[in-house]
Amino acid sequence: MSVEHLIKKLIELESWYETPVGKKAYELVVNQVACRVDQIYPSYLLQIGGRSIYRRACDHGQVFVHLDPRDGLSSNGLNVCCDLTGLHLPVPANQFSMVICPYVHEMVDDSVALFEELSRVVCENGFVVLVGINMASVWGIEYLMGRLVKPQWAGSIYSLTSLLKILKRYDLSLEQYETVFFTPYTYLLPNRVSQIMDYLGHRYWPKRGSIEIIWLQKKEEAFVLSNQVSTLRL
User: Fold this and answer.
1) Virtual torsion, Cα 137, 139, 141, 147, nearest 10 deg
2) Which of 29, 69, 153, 172 could disulfide-link 9, Cβ–Cβ 3.0 to 4.6 Å?
3) Nearest to 24 by CA among 200, 216, 215, 187
4) What are the residue ranges spanned by the domains of the chain?
5) How many angstroms separate the CA atoms of 204 and 36, rounded?
6) How far is residue 202's CA from residue 195's CA, in Å, rounded to a whole number?
7) Which residues contact 105 (CB under 8 A, 6 or more apart)?
8) Is the C-alpha dihedral spanning 181, 182, 188, 190 positive or negative?
9) Quick one: what percent of the chain has pLDDT higher than 90?
């Protein structure tokens, strides 16, 4: 995948953020992520691609990686441009206590190589946060019914099961799974109706929101080795 193709995908994501559905999805993700980040309080945070998900003023050191200075998505903090098609971030290993990736694993051709690189740059007990489309949701139903066109930025949309199968190869384990946005994609509902659907969704179907936020934690090396020894003994 060329740099130009990835930049095009990021621009398409940015354009979607400006639609009524995209604006709501962005704000819901921002609010959900901010609550958790404030609890974890990472010392050094990295976001790859897209507009800033964690926007609050704080003392965290923050780095934003973009594909090209022309994408116009620079954020507060240190901005770094790199070629993600090579899937090598220009930072040392074990550098960050949290890495946020909004829809990036849906854009790149080689998500396996991306997860390997994320595992390299995040420190032990650090977090990787993936934001993506939840196909086990009302949007997934609309997609299967032929009413929802696949988001233009997404080369692939993964189920949670398929993601966890890939992540088994690395030292990233599922720490928390949450979803937001329980209203249909194809209909712009009145705000009050949308709020009711979101309330009912969070209460009764918490894993069926259309946008998934996957919190992964890098295991301690000793824990990884003990698991490998146990596997060998079996």
Assistant:
1) 180
2) 153
3) 187
4) 3-233
5) 21
6) 11
7) 111, 114, 115, 130, 132, 158, 163
8) negative
9) 19
Residue 19 pLDDT grade (very low, low, confident, very high; cuts 50, 70, 90): confident
Is there a contact between 171 and 124 (Cβ–Cβ < 8 Å)? Answer: no
Rounded distance between C-alpha atoms, residue 220 and residue 109, angstroms: 29
Q: What residue type is assigned to position 19 of the chain?
A: T
pLDDT band at 30 (very low <50, low <70, confident <90, very high): very high
The label of the residue with tokens 């019914």 reads 145
Q: If you search the block for the tokens 């604006």, which residue do you land on?
A: 23
Over the stretch 76-119, which tens digit does the pLDDT of each residue have?
A: 444 455 555 556 777 789 988 999 988 888 888 778 888 888 89
For domain 3-233, the question of CATH label 3.30.70.100 is answered with no
Selected residue with higher pLDDT from 40 and 138 = 40
Q: Using the structure block, give the residue that is written with the tokens 């080689």.
A: 110
- Return phi, psi of residue 45, to 5°: -120, 140
State how far the alpha carbon of 75 is from the alpha carbons of 78, 80, 87, 214, in Å: 8, 10, 21, 23
**H helix intervals, the chain:** 3-17, 20-40, 104-107, 111-121, 138-144, 160-167, 191-204, 221-233
Task: With beta carbons less than 8 A apart as the criterion, state whether 63 and 46 touch.
Answer: yes
Lowest-pLDDT range, 166-170, 199-203, 222-226? 222-226
Is the pLDDT at 51 greater than 50? The verdict is yes
Distance CA 106, CA 117 (A): 15
